Amino acid sequence: MRRLAWLVFGLVAATACGAGSQPPPVTFTQYQLTCCAEADIDHAWQPGTTVELHWIVMANTVTTVNPSHKAVSTAQLLGPFSDVDTLKHATAGQYVVQGSIVAIDDRVPPATPPVSVFILPADLPAGYYQLNIHTDLGDGTSLGSGSIVQVRTP
């Protein structure tokens, strides 16, 4: 009985002193960009035109802070490929078209959703293109995604 009393006393003392309990982590709201409005990519793009990608702003709750508070997003078009299956197995494209770069402060939601602009060359060949999206979060962390875009002459 005496051993049981000391065991109970030890557990109560450890709990009262905070052993095993830690304060909950501090959370922050971080704003990120994801690409892009579906209407921007679900139609054929035409050579010689300007195409806009409208970024979607997303809020995430995180427990770590990006020390630079900068997020830089880029979009790049790679191709052409004759069909989607060939695109999915390719490692590079003959043409690379760089979209404009978008940078945000991840602590503040942009007043208006950012837009990346592609100026498509007039001689851009028709075909399927990989739209690569890359976001550098400034702390050595990056995110990437992709979509498929078709370029077609009128």
Write the layout of secondary structure elements.
Layout: H1 2-16, E1 28-34, H2 38-41, E2 50-54, E3 56-62, E4 70-81, H3 84-89, E5 95-98, E6 102-105, E7 115-119, E8 127-136, E9 142-151
Antiparallel strand pairs: 1-3, 2-7, 4-5, 4-6, 4-8, 8-9
What gyration radius follows from the Cα positions, in whole Å?
A: 25 Å
Percent strand: 35-45%
Please identify the oligomeric state: single chain
- Give the overall pLDDT as a whole number: 83
Indicate the percent of residues in helices: 10-25%
Question: SSE order in H/E notation?
Answer: HEHEEEHEEEEE
> How many strands?
9
Biggest sheet statistics: 5 strands, antiparallel
Which structural class do you get from the secondary structure elements? Answer: alpha+beta
Low-confidence region ranges = 1-16
Shape: elongated
Total of helices:
3
Distance from first to last alpha carbon? 91 Å
Describe what this molecule looks like in 3D.
This protein has 154 residues and is α+β, with helices and mostly antiparallel strands. 16% of the residues lie in helices and 42% in strands. It has 3 helices and 9 strands. It has helices at residues 2-16, 38-41, 84-89, and strands at 28-34, 50-54, 56-62, 70-81, 95-98, 102-105, 115-119, 127-136, 142-151. The strands form 3 sheets. Strands 4, 5, 6, 8 and 9 form a 5-stranded antiparallel sheet that branches. The longest helix has 15 residues, at 2-16. The protein is elongated and about 65 Å long. The termini are far apart. The model is unreliable at 1-16 (pLDDT under 50).
